Amino acid sequence: MLFGSSGIRGLVNEKITPDLVKKIGVAVGQHNDNIIVGRDTRPTGDMIFSALVAGITSTGANVENAGMIPTPTLAHATKNFDCGVMITASHNPAPYSGIKLWNPDGSSFDTEQMRDIEENIDSKAKLSSWKDVGTEKIYQNAIEEHVEEILNLVGTVQDLKVAVDCANGAGCVITPYILSEMGCEVITLNSQPDGTFPGHASEPVEENLTELSNLVKNSNTDLGIAHDGDADRMVAFDRTGRYLGGDELLALFTDMYSRSVVVPVNSSMVIDELADEVNRSKVGDVFVSEMLKKTDSDFGGEPSGTWIFPEISYGPDGIYAAALLTELTEKIDLVQEVNKLPSYPRSKDSIEVENKEEIMKKLVSFYKENYEEKNLNLIDGIRFEDHRGWGLIRASGTEPKIRMTVETKEEDDLETLMQEMKDSIQNCLEEIK
Q: Is 219 a catalytic residue?
């Protein structure tokens, strides 16, 4: 498939070529008359934009150019259009770009919509006559509309000092301003748009955010906020400089804001203790969003740091999440609340294999024989549960590997359960030799 779990993504002029992007534009323009397009800060954005608009307008569809904006801002603005297209590679390095497609409710194109685009990319579409080609206009209100809606949903704060690291990404045009309007004293890091990401790599993992952690610890700051390159993700630091990644924030948001939640199969069993209803989806914000709409749940999120709040959008919105966490920080002692959250030992590993699809089929048969149906989830790989905890076996989407995750209630069971998973894979390898 051309689409992954978060749109189409790849190296520019290798996978993401002007020719491919033009074909995507034609496929999108065939079924949508009015389309809004935005892009992140990457220097290749203008080239990709031009190819996309050429494809869209060749079908007779019209484009409104929202300019350089965050992905959640583009998704929010799509409510006024037939669909939206965001040119971004999210947290990937600068040589990458990609395409994400959005519905008017802020959700990503679902599985069926993505399949339809793929099937039409190489078909010979009927293009418009020269006098009926579409037009391109400027759309100037996307940021203002997003700011206004977020401020209507959150309260004001007093005497709160927040440091924001935007990773030189598109979040720099909105998050610091929203927090300032809420009443915060805001300190910014890497908040000049630069898609070469000179401050640090754009993925908001702890090792990339040491500068923010040190700033929070050494400047009497109440909260640190960090985005990725297009601000659909958000992670944080509490006032001690402790990193609050996806697992901690997923548990915190679940505990504070939702009784029913959608999380992917790689999420912690902590969520089961905090929510009345837990629905698990495939890994990827597209699938979390699909399940959210299907189950009418309160909230969806992923350990990667993506947060979906249906009251504003069915797409990941790291900006709204940052505002909510800021509001929450004034109401509670964030350090104490995170300390009170349950946590369990967790481990990850992988095994290199050449025939991962065949092995996964054999593993499914093995786990079906050894676990009751109620303790198995096969929606995305193999997630199994027993009295010790749970394990997840998934084939990598990009490498010849099978990845394993395990979480147990007791530390002593962690290595044992992981070894059982490795043994099951090894047995399958020996069977097919």
A: no
